[in-house]
Amino acid sequence: MTGSTHGNGNVGLWLGAVIVGAIVGIAGFSMLPGGVDPTFITVAEKLRPPSSLHWLGTDHLGRDVLGLTMQGAVASLAVAVIAVVIGACIGVPLGLIAAAREGWISQAIMRANDFIFAFPALVIAILLHDTMGAGMLNAIVAIGIFNIPVFARTAYGKAQPVWTLDFIRAARLAGKGDVRIALGHVLPLVMATIIVQATIQLGLGILAEAGLSYVGLGIVPPTPSWGRMLSEAQTLIGLAPRLAIVPGAAIALTVLGFTLLGDALSERVDPRRRGR
Questions:
Q1: In degrees rounded to 5, what are phi and psi of residue 64?
Q2: How far is CA 239 from CA 47, 53, 235, in A?
Q3: Which parts of the chain sit beneath pLDDT 70?
């Protein structure tokens, strides 16, 4: 049974890696110089069906749907990656500090994280809209803030038992401070779990960015965005359903890839899941 579970984990790992690699490759290919600008508006070519010139047709402004979808991957990945880095760089140290300093410091950090976690990225984006306006920065900050308590909880949950181990006590008796112990001994032991959590959060970040752009709080024109493509396609769903199907499928496939990858990595990191 363990072998079967391990085999399924390998399938999920490779499938997720292939999907994510393909999306990253498409995003990189769309950034190469010399290609056709998909944001160029040609009203005379609007709502053209798929053809040899436009493989997925054109939208209501005559823009190439395939090109918009490919460049939309760049924006979605950029927002998700930067937001996850922000969340990890702030949340992980907070979790390590809370695990090392049991008492009022730990309680204050974790209660503050609970307070932030109570506000979804959409609510944070609305609060930021009046000061920063809509745009990529607004989406990055909103999703990044939401990621902070996620990484803080992950780091705290994994680091707390480590601080009770004998070799940590020996390190303290040897005169090492909490910072040196956290960086040299605790962080390496929790890093695998943090990487798994980051992979999962990347998929959620893609979904969050699409949601923010859909309601007009994320990426703004002329930068292509899957969420805004969905928003613009909703009034044309009966006339040209492909305008909604293409970006929707891109979002679903990307989130699926990161989810499969994160789930497979989690099975490898957590021995209890391997046993099941």
A1: -70, 120
A2: 9, 21, 9
A3: 1-9, 34-36, 270-276
Q: What are the structural domains of the chain? A: 2-275 (1.10.3720.10)
Other residues' Cβ atoms within 10 Å of the Cβ of residue 147: 29
Say if CB 148 and CB 94 are below 8 A apart. Answer: yes
DSSP state of 147: H
The distance from CA 272 to its chain's CA centroid, rounded to whole angstroms, is 26
B/e letters for 87-125, b = 16+ CB within 10 Å, e = fewer, are bbebbbbbbbbbbbeeeeebeebbeebeebeebebbebb
pLDDT tens-digit map of 142-191 = 999 999 999 999 999 999 888 888 888 888 778 787 778 888 888 888 99
Longest CA–CA span in the chain (Å) reads: 77
Tell whether the torsion through CA atoms of 264, 270, 271 and 273 is positive or negative.
Answer: negative
List all residues 6 or more positions away from 70 whose beta carbon is below 8 Å from its beta carbon.
Answer: 26, 27, 29, 30, 38
User: Residue holding tokens 């990055």?
Assistant: 140
With 0-12 / 13-18 / 19 or more C-beta atoms within 10 angstroms meaning exposed / middle / buried, residue 275 is exposed
